[in-house]
## 1
Amino acid sequence: MQIKKLKSLFDTRWVERQAVFEDFHILYEPLLKTFDEIRSNRGWDTEAANQAHGLATNIQLRVYCSLSSVQLPLLVSPKV
């Protein structure tokens, strides 16, 4: 299956969210590579390069924060 567009998480029912996350996981690296190409390729204008940089930074920051919020509680052992 080839994914061409991400679904909005807010437009899906809770049972469909797993598929949205799986699609995002598949597209994560290609998205970042595309943004990096736009930033480094001189054929793109400055505005496109700046937008690509902002989008890549935003995606990476949100993924990092999401993973941190999921993993952090797992690292803290409950007091007995």
## 2
Amino acid sequence: MLGPYGYAIWLLCTLLEAAVVVCAIKKNALQRYLLLNVNMAASVLVSIARYNILSHCGFTSKEYLYFYYYSDSVLTITLSLRGRALSKSLLCRPGSHLCALGCCSKNA
């Protein structure tokens, strides 16, 4: 079970993730960093849902265990999509070796 410091860190991380999404909305950068914002918003929603299930069912319940691992898989998928988009934007710039080889087609 988490102690008070564990809950404080959990709350702080959730608030910082929410702040990333709020800043992106205020700066009109939601479209520019879409996958980053999707990942951060999903992380906030999953964190709130995990806390809700933890407070109702307990740390050792099957409900929390199942939700934890299923939600972690969803976050892993959004994280991998975000990483793919970031690496493509960094590697596929005009004049890069990959673009010269044709590895950065728009369909990839």
